[in-house]
Amino acid sequence: MAAVQQVTLSNGVEIPQVGLGVWEVPADQVQQNVETALELGYRHIDTAAAYGNEEGVGAALRATGLNRKDIFITTKLRNGDQGYDQAFVAFDDSLKHLGLDYVDLYLIHWPSPKRNLYVQSWAALEKIYEDGGARAIGVANFLPEYLNVLLDGSDIAPVINQFELHPTFQQAEVERVSKNEGLAVEAYSPLGRGVDLKEPEVLDVASRYDATPAQVVLAWHMAHGRIVIPKSVNRARMEENINSVDVHLSGDDVALIDSLERGNLQVFDPREAEFSQIR
Ligand code: A2P
Fold this sequence. Notes:
Blueprint: E1 6-8, E2 14-16, E3 20-21, H1 27-40, E4 44-46, H2 54-63, E5 72-77, H3 84-98, E6 103-108, H4 118-130, E7 134-140, H5 144-152, E8 160-164, H6 172-180, E9 184-188, H7 200-209, H8 213-223, E10 227-228, H9 235-242, H10 251-258
Parallel strand pairs: 3-4, 4-5, 5-6, 6-7, 7-8, 8-9, 9-10
Antiparallel strand pairs: 1-2
Helix pairs in contact: 1-2, 1-9, 2-3, 3-4, 7-8
This protein binds adenosine-2'-5'-diphosphate.
């Protein structure tokens, strides 16, 4: 089985560097998807209340014989549940849906600047953390302008910033500021939703390492010390993705992939993402 490295977060908690992302995995397929992942050696699953599939993730966990403490589970506070009081209600709902009594990581899903409730929401996450409901707390999609406000207005710093990051959309400034502030960087849509796998430079590197394009892109992320959560509902591709831990790129090839940046956003701009993610 692939030897996935652990990344140590600023509060000492370890997170497996490769996880399975389940955004857009339909609720009736997610249990099978997660069971397959666990069978293949994945020990880190990234879901969210907004994905509507926490129940299936929980069912998969119960169906395996694995110890709860050996699996890292992330879920997220949706936009429509932001605010101090509402965040506690939402967190309890997530635990109920997952069938768990704690999660490993709880994130604010989007800053939602027009709501302007993320500082209050964060105060609730701090309390959830202190009470043992989450072993670690962090943020997702926080550009520096939001991260700085949060850091100024909080007692406990987030341990992670999860955001869209792939060869053609690198958000170098978000990564730089996050790392400077001691946050680990977690790349979602690390393959650019599959689009970046067709880049000629990626194909070139893949042919030279006897690796697949996805493995090259994931190895590039890991060379930068990032955590990655590629999504796949296909067993062979899931296996391919976790086996990327055995691909080690040269400095020149890392630089070649670095050169692919062209502002190619594939998901949502955090300044605009205000959807309420209704239950
Ligand atoms: P599928 O689920 O059918 O495998 P990202 O994580 O960057 O959002 O990318 C997810 C997309 O990339 C999905 O469409 C997924 O399709 C596809 N994908 C995931 N892993 C691989 C892979 N190893 N090779 C090719 N496509 C992949």
